[in-house]
Write a structure and sequence with these properties.
About 85% of the residues lie in helices and about 0% in strands. The chain is an all-alpha fold and about 280 residues long. The chain has 2 domains: about 40 residues; about 220 residues, no CATH class.
Amino acid sequence: MGALLSISMSIASAIANLGNVIIVKTAEFGEFVHFVSRICAGLLSPRSWLRRDRLGQQLFFVGTMSMPVVMLTGGFIGMILAFEGYRQFQTIGQEARLGGVINLSMVKQIGPVLCAVMLAGRVGCSLAAELGSMRVTEQLDAMRAMGSDPIRVLVVPRVLACVLMIPGLTIASNLFGVLGGWLVITKFYGADAAQYFRFSEQFISWYDIMNGLTKSVFFGGAIGIISCWKGFECKAGAAGVGEATTNAFVTSFLTIIVMSLVLAKLLNDVEYWLYGGVQSVFG
């Protein structure tokens, strides 16, 4: 009888803990939705964020300062794809078509995702740490006490900078990825450069390019919102700032992967509906 009572109490405790976790997570999600709604409302007050020392500074930090690492990473990824795929295509005598595969992969998927991950690591962590430090030192409370809305002044320009600058960063990543693949295939392996670009032009359409840029806009918005949210919800102390920074990157990375899967399915379905099929690189 005692053993049965103990088991019943353990089950009841587990159910209670599960219910408590669900309640806490639901409340956090509600707070996050409220946070996003305040950002959307802040966009309607451009006088609060449309200033050189606010939006302009964030555009420079997010875009210009991130350009070198994005270009370098994109170039090396393009070269890696060329090295990995050349021998397989050479065995069937279609090494020139590898340019279409590499470039299509870069502009549709690898370029936007790679750029977003780099932005989450470089910019997202910085935003979370900066806002988290302001929360710990009570600077956000001081702004509210003075009648200034930190959402409009601090969050909106940072989110907008991520959304506006990531398409340009994605284009740079794509271009250097294409250049990296071209250097390896044509200069290292000696494939025909004219055929490389002919197949690339044949297999890549404007829809494919816009496909990747559309994904990048969603990625940029997710990075900006999540990073600022983690900073605003930072716990007290240096450990809290470090935890917020780590959570900002991990959550942004997982969100990028999930959004990439969903958007890939939706945009590919739209392409199939518009063009009635998908052109094969071996067609």
